[in-house]
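Sanity check

After download, print the first record. It should look like this:
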Amino acid sequence: MVNNKRLVGMISRRDFRKVKKESQLKAPVKAFMTTNVLAIEPGKSPMQAARLMVKHDIGRLPVVENGRIIGIITRSDAMLYFYDLLPD
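Expected structure tokens:
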């Protein structure tokens, strides 16, 4: 979730496991989102991003510069990066 162009939360499939009743589906995103979002700066390496994702068991990592989200890297992005490094 972005507020005034600043990252304030993120919701994942894991967060949706908190939904126990159908009536909760009408609740705002902020009721389920993670507010302590792990992020990475754009100057960090793909290896650093992959390490963070593995260490914290997360599949998506926002890229934040000066407090503003400028992108997101996924596990698939990291895997493709390392796959491209393999010799033919």
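If your output differs, re-run the checksum step. Summary of this record's structure: The chain has one domain: 2-85.
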